[in-house]
Amino acid sequence: GILDTCLYVMDRAQMDLSGRGNPIKVSRVGSAMVNAKDDEGVLVGSWDNIYAYGVPPSAWTGSVDILLEYQSSENPVRYGQCWVFAGVFNTFLRCLGIPARIVTNYFSAHDNDANLQMDIFLEEDGNVNSKLTKDSVWNYHCWNEAWMTRP
Asked: Who contacts 88 (Cβ-Cβ below 8 Å, separation ≥6)?
C-alpha cells in the first residue's frame, strides 16, 4: 500500500500529473507534504515532550505505519521529530524510484539569522542570554539527500 499512499500524498498536495515525472518537483512537493505544519501533510512535529494526542516520536519503528495511517485517517499523524520526518521522506522518495538516504550529524549548528556564523551572547556570569541568542546547537539532526539529474 505504500505506492498508493505516496500517490495519495501527491494528490493531497494537488500536484499536477504532468509534474510527477520530474524528480525535482516530486522531491519538493514530498518534502513540503511530509511536514504538516501548513498543508495538512503527513506528520505533525512536537518538541515539547507532550504527546497526549498522538504517539511520541521515539515510539515509531518505521515510516510505513506512519504513511499508511496518514492515508487511512486522512489527517496528519502525530508526532514526529527530525529523524521521523527524514525516515518518512526517505520512504516516499525511494518508493517513487528516487535514490535517497538519511544524513545524520551530531552537534548540529542552526544559524537562525542566516549570517553564516554562530552568535551566542553571554551574560556577565557566563550564562547564555536567551533573549539575544537566536542561534543554537542541537545534539544531533537528520535530513535527506536525494540523487537526480539537474539542469
From this structure: 34, 42, 43, 63, 66, 67, 80
CA dihedral for 136, 137, 143, 147, sign (positive or negative): positive
Q: What is the pLDDT of residues 91-100, one digit of tens each?
A: 999 999 999 9
CA 42, CA 75: separation in Å to the nearest integer? 7
Q: Does 151 fall in a domain?
A: no
Cell of 124: 556577565
Specify the CATH number for the domain of residue 36: 3.90.260.10
pLDDT score of 21: 95
The confidence score (pLDDT) of residue 136 equals: 86
C-alpha 74: how far from chain center: 18
Q: What angle do CA 41, 44, 47 make, to 5 degrees?
A: 155
Are 57 and 79 in contact, with CB atoms under 8 Å apart?
A: yes
Phi and psi at 131, nearest 5°, equal -75, -35
Query: pLDDT below 50 — which residues of the chain?
Result: none
Q: pTM (2 decimals)?
A: 0.88
